[in-house]
């Protein structure tokens, strides 16, 4: 992914300027007759035209600058699958003292019926506001009277009470677009870092000087009017194994760098890491909480009573915090309730929990630091200059000898030293109370590993009976432990597993190490499946791929412009030994397969043999890289296609004549 960073003297022009908006509901017969083949024959809906403007405005009532953003779009619906485009959700940020205001919503559905255009306007009573959490909300509505061939059109304004992140613009979305235009008018007093990201290129861009677009304290201010246009934009299709879609969609983003004061002074907004370090260490809800060692002074003897070295001390402290402070469901780099209160109430956000962990590790005389990061869903971190709003998560880093361990006590069931996959996202910034901060690679310390072993016998009454044994460690163990926790009991977990195994019944089960997080999860099942009817001539079909079968290719695009990001390497092994009666022989079997990805990126092996009345089957799937680049995508897609074809075949054996 390439990023183009520009330091521009921008700022917003008045919406009353020469912005090229289009007439509301002014559709033509060409719009009605337009087919999806013009851009994407698979499209269920398509943006015909969209236009947005953003400008800075001085709010006299509040005495501060705000961003005034307008949006207008016209969309053609081709079929019922495209009706989803008629469900509109406008996200809003909620601040401690203010919130984004959604205003002037206008919406209409236009249908061409019996040679006439018929309009159905949105009833204002059917606009709903919803608070998702204390940080965000959404304004929602559904377009009326949708049918195949409808054209929907809507517009709205948003008043944004913060100017640091100027309103971004996404050229790409989940449906293709014929034309997208964005006008950003920014006063010359303000300098924004502007980034153009994504694989698509601008069709055109233009910069104009607009005189006296804004008055501040009676002083006229000139603006830069920036126009960005993109045409014939393909839909952005989200697929499995990716980080935030915002990392890859073609878009324009703005971040305030500095601004000039009317008296001639200049104030920098983009800080150095030295500035950010000082702010975080001094911040009551961050650095001050890392220093709360005294909160654990009386608890520490009990926590450390069975420890013998620094590693066992760190593990004991980690287990104490993990078990005694539960997540309230909110994430963030700052403490919301403070360490002492989180200990008393046994609940907190990620900041409360992991800053408490750092303080407790320090109380045990261990070298502990904080690592702030951006989760995979939140987006990438700007490595060129510090932007604190890029970070939404904090974990602990404890240094023991030459080894460092990343810890997240806010996520249940994580073994010591393993971060949740949602934290494996590029680099994090290590914040130390006494030393300068530094970047640190966020890598998975363990792979996603599972091993299966099935030893069974084909009995004379036509049943296949045996023991299925599995070992799951790393992220595979974490996923299974979560499934057990969600099922509320092991019995319910086994019952759900039994339901998924079509044609197979479980008679006994045993699961070990559910609570021993640093050990593999071991599952033992006595299972039975039908082989044949003993009263008839038999030909037995046995699919050795019934364990962890891959039935659907996760990669289906003709081209993928963003990486396949697994987060960690993966390995699955399967071994089967099936003893059959002496009068049975092999009639057919899957062809042995050995394929690999370039540069040791992964491999798949499967082979079958028959000796001394025992069918031996072995299978190995390895994905050795956490990230595969777009140019490796088609090879990965073909790799999975061949595996799926192989796994459709059976071992066939029958009675010898």
From TrEMBL:
Record carries keyword Signal: yes
Xref: Pfam families: DUF3857
Gene3D superfamilies found in the cross-reference section: 2.60.120.1130, 2.60.40.3140, 3.10.620.30
Keyword check for Transmembrane: no
Residue ranges annotated for the DUF3857 domain, each copy included: 68-188
UniProt keywords, alphabetically: Signal
Domain of life: Bacteria
Signal peptide from the UniProt entry: 1-19
Coiled coil regions in record: none
Protein name (Swiss-Prot/TrEMBL): DUF3857 domain-containing protein
Provenance organism: Pedobacter caeni
């Amino acid at each position: 992914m390439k990023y183009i960073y520009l330091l521009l003297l921008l700022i917003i022009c008045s919406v009353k300027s020469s912005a090229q908006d289009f007439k509301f509901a002014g559709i033509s017969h060409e719009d009605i007759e337009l087919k999806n083949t013009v851009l994407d024959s698979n499209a269920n809906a398509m943006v015909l035209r969209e236009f947005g403007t953003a400008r800075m405005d001085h709010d006299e009532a509040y005495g501060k600058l705000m961003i005034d953003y307008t949006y207008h779009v016209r969309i053609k619906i081709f079929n019922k699958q495209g009706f989803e485009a008629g469900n509109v959700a406008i996200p809003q940020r909620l601040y401690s003292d203010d919130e984004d205001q959604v205003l002037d919503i206008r919406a209409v559905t236009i249908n061409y019926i019996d040679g006439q255009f018929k309009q159905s306007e949105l009833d204002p009573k059917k606009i709903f506001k919803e608070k998702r959490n204390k940080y965000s909300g959404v304004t929602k509505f559904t377009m009326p009277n949708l049918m195949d061939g409808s054209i929907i059109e809507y517009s709205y304004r948003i008043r944004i009470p913060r100017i640091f992140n100027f309103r971004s613009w996404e050229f790409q979305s989940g449906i293709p677009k014929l034309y997208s235009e964005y006008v950003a008018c920014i006063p010359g007093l303000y300098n924004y870092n502007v980034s153009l990201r994504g694989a698509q290129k601008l069709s055109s861009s233009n910069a104009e000087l607009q005189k006296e677009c804004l008055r501040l304290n009676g002083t006229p201010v000139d603006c830069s009017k920036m126009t960005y246009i993109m045409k014939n934009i393909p839909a952005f299709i989200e697929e499995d194994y990716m980080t935030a879609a915002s990392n890859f969609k073609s878009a324009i983003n703005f971040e305030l760098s500095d601004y000039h004061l009317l008296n001639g002074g200049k104030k920098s907004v983009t800080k150095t890491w030295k500035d950010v370090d000082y702010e975080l260490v001094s911040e009551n809800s961050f650095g001050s909480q890392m220093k709360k060692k005294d909160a654990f002074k009386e608890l520490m003897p009990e926590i450390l009573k069975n420890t013998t070295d620094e590693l066992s001390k760190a593990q004991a402290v980690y287990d104490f915090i993990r078990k005694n402070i539960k997540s309230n469901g909110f994430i963030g780099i700052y403490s919301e309730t403070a360490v002492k209160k989180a200990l008393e109430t046994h609940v907190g956000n990620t900041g409360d929990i992991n800053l408490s962990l750092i303080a407790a590790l320090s109380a045990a005389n261990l070298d502990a630091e904080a690592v702030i990061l951006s989760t995979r869903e939140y987006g990438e971190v700007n490595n060129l200059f510090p932007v604190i709003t890029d970070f939404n998560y904090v974990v602990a880093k404890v240094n023991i000898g030459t080894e460092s361990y990343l810890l997240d006590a806010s996520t249940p069931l994580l073994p010591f030293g393993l971060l949740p996959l949602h934290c494996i996202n590029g680099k994090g910034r290590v914040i130390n109370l006494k030393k300068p901060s530094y970047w640190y690679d966020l890598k998975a310390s363990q792979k996603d590993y599972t091993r299966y072993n099935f030893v069974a016998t084909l009995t004379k009454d036509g049943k296949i009976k045996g023991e299925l044994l599995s070992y799951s460690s790393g992220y595979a163990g974490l996923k299974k432990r979560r499934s057990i926790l969600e099922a509320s009991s092991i019995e319910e977990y086994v019952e759900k597993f039994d339901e998924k195994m079509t044609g197979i019944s479980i008679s006994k089960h045993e699961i070990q190490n559910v609570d021993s997080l640093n050990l593999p999860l071991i599952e033992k099942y006595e299972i039975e499946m039908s082989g044949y009817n003993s009263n008839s001539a038999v030909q037995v079909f046995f699919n050795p791929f019934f364990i962890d079968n891959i039935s659907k290719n996760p990669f289906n695009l003709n081209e993928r412009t963003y990486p396949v990001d697994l987060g960690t390497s993966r390995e699955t092994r399967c071994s089967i030994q099936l003893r059959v009666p002496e009068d049975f022989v092999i009639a057919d079997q899957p062809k042995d397969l050995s394929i690999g990805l370039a540069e040791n990126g992964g491999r798949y092996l499967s082979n079958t043999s028959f000796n001394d009345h025992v069918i031996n089957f072995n299978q190995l799937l390895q994905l050795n890289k956490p990230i595969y680049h777009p140019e490796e995508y088609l090879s990965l897609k073909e790799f999975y296609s061949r595996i799926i074809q192989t796994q459709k075949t059976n071992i066939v054996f029958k009675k010898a004549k």
